[in-house]
Amino acid sequence: MKNRSRSWTLAAALSACLLSAPAWADVVKIAFIDPLSGPFAPVGQNLLRSFQSVAEIANREKWAPGHTFEVVGFDNKASPQESLTVLKSAIDQGFRYIAQGNGSGAAGALIEAINKHNDRNPGQEIVFLNYAAVDPDLTNSKCSFWHFRFDANSDMKMEALTAYLAKDQSVKKVYIIGQNYAHGHQVTRAAKAYLKRKRPDIEIVGDDLHPIGSVKDFSPYVAKIAASGADAVITGNWGSDLALLVKAARDASLKSKFYTFYAYTTGVPTVMGAAAADFVRYAGTWNVNNETFAGKELVESFKKKFNDDFYALTTYSAVQLLGIGIRQAKSTDPVKVAFAMEGQKFKTLNGDVDMRKTDHQLQQPIYITTWVKTNGKDVKFDQENTGYGWKTEQKIDAYVASQPTSCNMKRPS
């Protein structure tokens, strides 16, 4: 009788513990859908490790109490079609949150597929955390309640970049070159429009779009740039396309200044080396050599663990806001979390930011930086063990880089 009584007591105690534990506590699984093979694999691998490292911090610091984050990689081979295949696989495996960024074509395909899935499968909704696909249309004509962008879109970056470039009176001729897909077209459009508004005296002496991920030798393009007499080159290229372009420019001793969005990404710093010092710049959402070196602990631990560079602030901001959304909603249900995330103002590694409710475009500062030799002062951190890193030239406030939106968002009832 005593044993039975003791069993009932233990059972009652266990029941009480279960009732008092958060009913919504579980593992929050994020499917990372980006290239993990092919020419853009080095960037994809770095970013997967970045997400996983941030998830470890979030779990340790309890960004979403009662929950742990898990990030699993899915290889989309940089293809919109393959992205849809792996999205279906992720959904079948129970993932309710996805992260993608390398390629606006893939991002557009994912938004459309997620919209259809969520309409047809109430109670099984998916939320898309976009950390790098920067086509402005994704938060304008193609905006979606289910899509949140953590990078500045290409118009925001171009606004900041051309504001800086316009001050350089030595620039009289500009050459534009980019990848022939949505992002490349948007960069070309914005560069022309913004330079015309800010420096109508600047002549656009070239405008090339090349196949994405398939050009092995950029020397013919560099020869055209040299022949044009361009003082500056504007490019939205990323990954191997940027590394090979810069290599060809370096090999040809091209003196034009390069204004980029992604010169800090995997592989490019090694190619640039000393030859690119003082003439390559980027406009981006963060620089580890920032005014307070915010994020240096993460950069140092990432380097120690992977012998690689942490550079994607957007992976940090995405997990950070997801944690805020889960805490506010007291749920991991994607619908409740999405409502909780929109309109949130929070502080991250680049300062105060705002997930604008109107279009789910994160409003944030933009850094303009220059590739220089490290000096132990304002340029402490190098990249890829080159002895060169990024010097902050200007931090442009969010309200300066901010762009209007045409988004007419449909929200679930």
Q: Give the ordered list of helices and strands.
A: HEHEHEHEEHEHEHEHEHEHHHEEEEEH
Kindly report the name of the CATH homologous superfamily of the largest domain: Response regulator
Strand content: 15-25%
Instruction: Report mean pLDDT, rounded to a whole number.
Output: 93
Q: How far do the termini sit from each other?
A: 55 Å
User: Low-confidence runs (pLDDT<50, min 5 residues)?
Assistant: 1-24
Q: Which strand order do you get reading across the main beta sheet? A: 7-6-8-9-10-14-15
Q: Provide the CATH topology of the largest domain.
A: Rossmann fold
CATH architecture heading of the largest domain: 3-Layer(aba) Sandwich
Number of domains: 2
At the first level of CATH, the class of the largest domain is Alpha Beta
The biggest sheet amounts to: 7 strands, mixed
Alpha-beta classification = alpha/beta
C-alpha-based Rg, rounded: 23 Å
Principal-axes geometry comes out as: globular
Question: How many strands appear in the DSSP assignment?
Answer: 15
Helix content: 40-55%
Helices, by number, come to 13
Structure description:
The protein has a seven-stranded mixed sheet with strand order 7-6-8-9-10-14-15, sandwiched between helices. The longest helix has 21 residues, at 41-61. It is built from 13 helices and 15 strands. It starts with a helix and ends in a 12-residue tail after the last helix. It has helices at residues 2-20, 41-61, 80-92, 104-120, 154-165, 182-198, 219-228, 240-251, 268-272, 296-306, 313-329, 334-341, 398-401, and strands at 27-34, 68-75, 97-100, 127-130, 147-149, 173-179, 203-210, 232-235, 257-260, 280-284, 345-348, 351-355, 362-363, 366-373, 388-396. Helix 2 (41-61) links the parallel strand 1 and strand 2 (68-75). By secondary structure, the chain is of the alpha/beta class. It folds into two domains: 27-153 and 295-363, Rossmann fold (3-Layer(aba) Sandwich); 155-291 and 366-401, Response regulator (Rossmann fold), CATH 3.40.50.
